[in-house]
Amino acid sequence: MRVNKTLFSPVRSKRTFEDVSLQVRDLIVRGVLKPGDRLPPEAELGEQFHVGRQTVREALRILELSGFISIQKGFGGGPFVKDSTVGKATDILWHAFKMAKTSLAEVVAARLLIEKAVLNDVFDRAGKEDIKKLQENVAKAKDLIAKGQKPFDESFEFHILLAKASKNNVFVVLVETINTIHRRLRSQKPPTFAMVKGFVKKHEQILEALIGKDRQRALRLLEEDTRQIRNSR
Amino acid sequence: MRVNKTLFSPVRSKRTFEDVSLQVRDLIVRGVLKPGDRLPPEAELGEQFHVGRQTVREALRILELSGFISIQKGFGGGPFVKDSTVGKATDILWHAFKMAKTSLAEVVAARLLIEKAVLNDVFDRAGKEDIKKLQENVAKAKDLIAKGQKPFDESFEFHILLAKASKNNVFVVLVETINTIHRRLRSQKPPTFAMVKGFVKKHEQILEALIGKDRQRALRLLEEDTRQIRNSR
DNA sequence: TCACATTTGTCCGTATGTATC
DNA sequence: AGATACATACGGACAAATGTG
Q1: B29, B109, B121: residue with CB nearest A95
Q2: CATH code, A5-83
Q3: Residues B90-116: pLDDT tens digits?
Q4: Which residues surround strand C, with CB < 7 Å?
Q5: Positive or negative torsion for Cα A130, A133, A139, A145
Q6: Deepest in the core among A208, B5, B61, B202, taking most CB within 10 A?
Q7: How far is CA A170 from the centre of its chain?
Q8: Which part of chain B is CATH 1.20.120.530?
Q9: CATH of span A102-231
């Protein structure tokens, strides 16, 4: 009796460009190649790996989409090692949600639950530096408002800083991802000046509650903040 | 004064293969092309888009890595539209966490907080069908144990079913992502038979608490279950 | 401003591997 | 077992972009 090969052999698809991309990826993940490093041009990579240029290009496409490298054309150009890979994951998840016809309400509900869990952790773990960064963020946002500008990025950054104060990198990535998706979902109608002003006001109050160690008030304020964002559609 | 081009022109979509992949991706996202559909072979796609085969191939690489299509070789093969795009995002996040040197403790903490939030929602939203699916899952796991096999996938699936019972697609994706990463982090030491048996026991108790509407007990059991998994390293 | 070198982007022709009928 | 249809891979060629002198 012949062994069913689907049981034992789905391990290798034997595609050369995958092999090449995996080799380069490992060099980056293991830190041999560091952010900012320039890889050899396509032709030279082909010589070193003993493969054609087309194969190299397909490997580079994979690495580029995965966020490991960026590519610049022309003199002095070529593939460069990038530092962050979160953005591309956000992009893929965004399309995954879109395909699954995920509603805005679902995203808001998920965002609220996660940020509440994060905030709860922040109360136990935040240090002086974290508080300081949050204060600077709010101060900058208020400054921009005073100048008549919308502190859109600062308003977004506040939530990232909160996640960082939880001292858990997973939360930073999750909050970044979900909030980006949330922002994209309602991007057709950007918030008005009054709305952003309301966000900053809430952020200031959350920060006060955090300093005053008033956990329940902070959680309630965060909920109001998120619902405020939801209604901005 | 010359306008800084980084302010206005980061829109560059000058690359043909990006254009091609975007066009095909939109057809899939908008549902014109549905899961299981077979796309024309590379040569024909090249003719329709008026581009070369290499350009088509690079576009297909992007779509493949993004999880929108899979590619089969040989007669009757070609690019096929896939249904789920979550797996690739998980892969990218996994490497992102790895590069950021995220610890197992951080992943476990994040997983626990999210699953507790999800379980809390499940108490309000789960219907009869959800309970039934969870019961079937536990029954199958117990059955495998009785046969002396490790119900590894079932033990994983239980948490996905819980997320689905929350009726929020975002949670399904998040739980799937984090749990997969958690599993990979401890994959060097797979759980023993006794451990998996312990998981299933906890799952059964959580299900009982869910049916009995004992929210606090269910949350406590979930915490025990997750900590049990952590200790299996 | 004008070449000029470097490197990616693109196309074509061709050959080989692979899965199905 | 052989023909077919498809992806995979190579090499050559030229265009386009980009920085240098």
Answers
A1: B29
A2: 1.10.10.10
A3: 777 777 777 667 788 888 888 998 899
A4: A 14, 41-43, 53-54, 57, 60, 71-79; B 14-17, 46, 50-55, 58, 72-77
A5: negative
A6: B61
A7: 11
A8: 102-231
A9: 1.20.120.530
For CATH 1.10.10.10, the residue range(s) in chain A are: 5-83
Per the structure, the residue whose CA is closest to nucleotide C19 at C1' is B74
Q: What is the pLDDT of residues A150-168, one digit of tens each?
A: 898 888 899 999 999 999 8
Q: Under an 8 A CB cutoff, do A65 and B67 touch?
A: no
Instruction: Determine the Cα–Cα distance for residues B156 and B143; give it in Å rounded to an integer.
Output: 16
Separation between Cα atoms, residue A230 and residue A225, nearest integer Å: 9
Contacts 24+ apart (CB under 8 A), A52-59: A54/B54, A54/B57, A55/A16, A55/A17, A55/A20, A56/A17, A56/A20, A57/B54, A57/B58, A58/A17, A58/A21, A58/B57, A58/B58, A58/B61, A59/A17, A59/A18, A59/A20, A59/A21, A59/A24
Q: Which residue of B has its CA nearest to A107?
A: B170
- Phi-psi category of B169—alpha, beta or left, where left has phi over 0 and alpha has psi -120 to 50? alpha
Considering only the C-alpha atoms of chain A, give the largest distance between any 2 of them, rounded to a whole number of Å: 80
Contact call for B67 and A92, based on CB within 8 A: yes
Structure letter (DSSP) for residue A69: E
CA dihedral B196, B202, B206, B209 (to 10 degrees): 150
Q: How far apart are the first and last CA of chain B?
A: 61
CA distance A24 to A18: 10
Confidence of residue A7 (pLDDT cuts 50, 70, 90): very low
